[in-house]
Amino acid sequence: MERSFSSFFTGLGLIGILTGMVLLVFVVWSVIWAFHDARRRGKSPWLVALMVLLMVWPVGLVLWLMLRPLKKEQQV
């Protein structure tokens, strides 16, 4: 009986680790994307990347998507 509980929690731990890794990759990808998007649109890329990362992650990303300039700056 004790063995079934330990295998259940081991499996649950593996699922949690995999879910956490996928979430971490998505967070890092969204910060990198926001950095490059801000640079293309002529805004401070470091400030935008920090905002996306530090403002309770999904809230910062949604905020940047709502407040970013509509047009990209022209290359000179």
Keywords:
76 residues; mainly alpha; elongated; 3 helices
3D architecture notes:
With 76 residues, the protein is an all-alpha fold. The chain has a domain at 24-68. The chain is built from three helices and no strands. The protein has helices at 2-40, 45-54, 57-67.
Biggest sheet descriptor: none
**Strand content bin:** under 5%
Question: What would you call the structural class?
Answer: mainly alpha
Unreliable stretches covering 5 or more consecutive residues: none
Task: Please tally the helical runs, counting DSSP H or I stretches of 4 or more residues.
Answer: 3
Tell me the overall shape: elongated
Number of distinct beta strands = 0
Task: Write the element-wise H/E pattern from the N-terminal end onward.
Answer: HHH
State Rg: 19 Å
Mean pLDDT: 80
User: What percent of residues adopt helix (DSSP H or I)?
Assistant: over 70%
Terminal Cα span:
71 Å
Write the layout of secondary structure elements.
Layout (H helix, E strand, L loop, with lengths): L1 H39 L4 H10 L2 H11 L9
Summarize the structure.
It contains three helices and no strands. The protein is mainly α and 76 residues long.
